[in-house]
């Protein structure tokens, strides 16, 4: 299994409970596509470089996970349509 990380920016308009639900959904998607969730780092609320969906701030999260080559593709196809997600980036980590 390869190592990956996904950075997710969630809307700053979300309450803490809704952010937790969205984050849990992302972790569930990783597991659904054969991945194993590792460390989850909350970077907190930060100003965006430019407005996205008329928002100037977002909550940043970094999720490390292991998975097959299909895991990132499946994750991206579902995370792309999640309403609270402003931006995301999945990266394969160097060995």
Brief digest:
With 95 residues, the chain is an alpha+beta fold. The chain has helices spanning 16-32, 70-79; strands spanning 2-11, 36-52, 55-67, 85-92. The chain has a 4-stranded antiparallel β-sheet, covered by helices on one side.
Rg from alpha-carbon coordinates: 13 Å
Structural class: alpha+beta
Largest sheet geometry: 4 strands, antiparallel
> Quick one: overall form?
globular
From the N-terminal CA to the C-terminal CA, the straight-line distance is: 11 Å
Number of strands: 4
Question: What's the tally of helices?
Answer: 2
Mean pLDDT, nearest integer?
94
Which percent band covers the strand fraction? over 45%
Q: What are the secondary-structure elements, in order, as H or E?
A: EHEEHE
Low-confidence region ranges: none
Roughly what percent helix? Answer: 25-40%
Trace the largest sheet across and list its strands.
2-3-1-4
Task: Report on the architecture of this protein.
- With 95 residues, this protein is of the alpha+beta class.
- The protein has 2 helices and 4 strands.
- Strands 2-3-1-4 form a 4-stranded antiparallel sheet, covered by helices on one side.
- The termini are close together.
Descriptive key words:
single chain; 95 residues; alpha+beta; 4 strands; globular
List the helices and strands and how they pair.
Layout: E1 2-11, H1 16-32, E2 36-52, E3 55-67, H2 70-79, E4 85-92
Helix pairs in contact: 1-2
């Amino acid at each position: 299994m390869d190592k990956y990380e996904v950075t997710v920016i969630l809307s700053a308009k979300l309450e803490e409970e809704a952010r937790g639900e969205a984050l849990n959904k992302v972790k569930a998607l990783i597991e659904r596509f054969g991945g194993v969730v590792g460390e989850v780092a909350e970077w907190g609320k930060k100003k965006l470089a430019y407005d996205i969906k008329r928002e100037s701030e977002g909550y940043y999260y970094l999720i490390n996970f292991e998975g097959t080559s299909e895991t990132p593709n499946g994750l991206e196809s579902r995370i792309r349509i999640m309403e609270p997600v402003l931006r995301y980036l999945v990266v394969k980590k160097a060995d």
